[in-house]
Amino acid sequence: xxxxxxELNGILNDGRKALALAEAHHSERQxxxxxxxxxxxxxxxxxxxxxxxxxxxxxxxxxxxYCDEYLEGKNSLGDxxxxxxxxxxxxxxxxxxxxxxxxxxxxxxxxxxxGSRIKKGAEGYTEKTLxxxxxxxxEAEMAIxxxxxxxxxxxxxxxxxxxxxxxxxxxxxxxDVKN
Length: 179
Hints:
Number of strands: 3
Radius of gyration: 26 Å
Shape: rod-shaped
Distance between the termini: 23 Å
């Protein structure tokens, strides 16, 4: 049995049909050009890679939103008459990697705010470290909640990058099919 291009495309775009054809008698696969199957696999892997890039950028956006929320919360502390200190949060893309961190911002001798990064451990910032730099309980709690989000996003982003590297390492991803 020879499949038409339309039938083959229908099979290549449906995992269940592809599985059924793979498990069918070899005569059912007559006329199936493996190069078309490889090309479809390459296209699919490239789409997956693009979706992973998008997921990474969405993770970055999510981290930025949590940072904004933290800074807005700090601003509202002053409006409520609560004290707040020099604990500050930042999120940036550093050589393509999401970098969510806390810093201590103090006025310099010249009156401008100067930030120095607070050292974080392998698992992120500890509650003890954040409390040390916060001036009050509300500021500490906001920083701890923000760091919980950052930790999740860091792990999520690391997994996404790992998946991208794994997909890109598949020879079929980059090579043209050899006869």
